[in-house]
Amino acid sequence: MLAELMLSALLLLVTYWFIVTRRLSSAVSAYSVQSWLLGLVALALYVDTRLIGLLLFGLLIVSVKGILIPRLLRNRVAFALVAGRETSYYVRFPTALLIGAGLSLVGLLAATRLAFQPQLLPQSVLGISLAVFLLGLFTTIARRDAILQVTGLLAAENGLLLLSLVVAPGLSLLIEVAIVLDVLIAVLVMGFLVARMRDAVAGTDTSELTRLRG
Amino acid sequence: MLAAAVGQLIAVAVVIALSPLLRGVIENLKAKVQSRRGSSPLQPYYDLYKLLGKQRSRTPHGSALSVAAPYIVFATPIAFAMLIPVLSAAPLSWAFMADMVGSGFVIGIGGFFTNLAAMDSGSPYGGLGSSRSRFVSSLAEPTFIVVFFAVGFISGGTVPFVVNDALFTSSSHIVPSHALIAAAFLMVILAEAGRLPIDNPNSSQELSMIESSRLYEFSGPDLALFEWGGFMKLFVLLIVWLNVLVFPLGLAGAINVPAFAVAVASLAGKMLVAAILLVGIESALAKIRIMRVPEYLGGSFVLAFLGLALYTVGH
To answer: What ipTM is given for this predicted complex?
Structure first.
């Protein structure tokens, strides 16, 4: 139980990486590390419970979200990563950090108010998963750069998967495969959209998208 | 009673004697990482010896503050060392003079007088360094306070000796919060002691320096006391980190010669590990721009805050 708790706390910590990072490539690395941690939580849970579904789930997460999607992202948006550009927020960095701290508190507190008893994982992991979800959504909203918005959305999705581990550890593998494949397709589509955007406005800064065309 | 007093004296003597060595080892290892031969680990001792032998020269514009400040800076880490578990796990006679908040104040006095003395000389660099160091310290303060809150909350006390006992005997669900708090504390220690992501202890470059600009107007024995006080400050803060928050094993259980000998040896070992960790951090990170210091310290605040929040929620 301790290993899962520790890994989840690390997962929350890594999510802050999305908030503080200035470089696109490090956001992709953060996503990779976050997915690895998520997979490791599932694997640690498998060691505790011996549910074969968890083992497959963990391996699926690590292989698809930890290795395949980061590679795909790097390929798709290589033009932006090579530049090593620094990106900005709609808010200032320290403000973003404080908002992030507030959001994780909201997530953690909300988990204690839910009338729900987790079966395998401790209550705080439920809170962590909500916090990760909120932080991911915040990054999606507050970042100017399209690629960072994509990684923020993916981070939020990892929070949801952690939530699924807390709520229903033995979820049918078919559903999990479907979810992960869904994400893979989403990344492909979003990568395509980002590339299109680069062609249209010569950049990935969404604050430049000011005109609506039919 | 007498034994406890002697034990305390030994702890203080260890702090005074070994702190320059820590600095020397860090510099030496750092040079090795950069493929240089590096100066001997004993170099800080030679430097201190040379400075202590020099003639004292003081600015004629300074007041009594500049005369007193070096002694105060030298004395505060020593007072601090009496309040924390340097060698023994059992509280010694003066350990209850102040808790963690109080000892934070004690260690703060040194920085306060360094700032006053730096401005007292009237040199523009002194004012610059003072203002920058206040900037860093005031931003480090929230993290310190939250760390103290958190450990006080978890262990039911803020006396360092009580804390290190409580943190390692309570249930396992505090482990994540404990790790976060320890990480946050290390970050503020690096900032407070003027180590790399915030201030480069080796450079005296106008644009970036914080600590060295405060000491510009001091020379000879005065400078030696400032330097030595700085070595001791890093040393005692690392002791708090190691012995209270991270690895409280190897401390002497009783006050006798073999137990203390083992404690000194284990402290030296832990310090070596800490030195390697610091070298790793300082070789991997560049000094951050002064305007980004709030982000670094804001990050440490968030870590400590999350540690506290996780503990409260899991409880």
So the answer is: 0.73
